[in-house]
Amino acid sequence: MIGRITGTLLEKNPPQILVDVHGVGYEIDVPMSTFYNLPATGGAVSLHTHHVVREDGHFLFGFATDEERAAFRQLLKVSGVGARMALAVLSGLSVNDLAQAVALQEAGRLVKIPGIGKKTAERLLLELRDKLGKALPSMAGARLAAAPGVAPDTKSDILNALLALGYNEREALSAMKGLAEDVGVSDGIRQALKALSKS
Asked: What is the C-alpha to C-alpha distance for residues 81 and 146, in angstroms, rounded to an integer?
């Protein structure tokens, strides 16, 4: 309904801000990742928004990037996750960090966020596994960032080969972590398979 807000930043009271748009003040809740990048009060601000209508009122949530909003919307689809918890997740993890945690199924990164226990973290990882990638075009890059050092195209080829061989994404990315930066595709696959046979 309201997809974007552009105006003057009047107040900052985390996690809520007040934005003046032609004389109308909009109260918008934002994750801390967005909050830290806001201009000083009086400055111009433009946010992607998500509008929630509930029995007890209308609520606006604002995001610095479209990826943040897309991740927020996917989090809301997880059973038992409301807007407050979704904001908490995006305040505790960047979108790329969340994408990596989901790709590697790392519950440990999520349980560090206040209000998220082990069961909730596991449910988030399970339900986001197939959905987050489709919602975030940059998810593939985030997944491959979990295997640092190797060139992105090479990483992609190695990862796809390991997936085709029947390994899951977590196993494949874990095996790729030890690869040298200048490794070729065939050597990378061979070394990753060697690492997988030991684990």
From this structure: 26
Most confident of 27-31, 112-116, 169-173: 27-31
DSSP summary character for residue 181: T
Q: Give φ, ψ of 178 to 5 degrees.
A: -90, 5
| Cα 107 from chain centroid (whole Å) | 14
Amino acid at 23: G
Residue 47 tokens read as 């946010």
Taking alpha carbons only, the member of 19, 44, 42, 43 closest to residue 30 is 19
Is the pLDDT assigned to residue 33 strictly greater than 70?
A: yes
Q: What pLDDT band is residue 42 in, cutting at 50, 70 and 90?
A: very high
**Helices 169-176, 185-198: crossing angle, 10 deg rounding:** 110
171 phi/psi in degrees, rounded to 5 = -60, -45
Q: Which residues contact 49 (CB under 8 A, 6 or more apart)?
A: 2, 3, 4, 5, 28, 60, 61, 62, 63, 69
Of all residues in the chain, the percent with pLDDT exceeding 70 is 89
> Distance between CA 191 and CA 176 in Å, rounded?
8
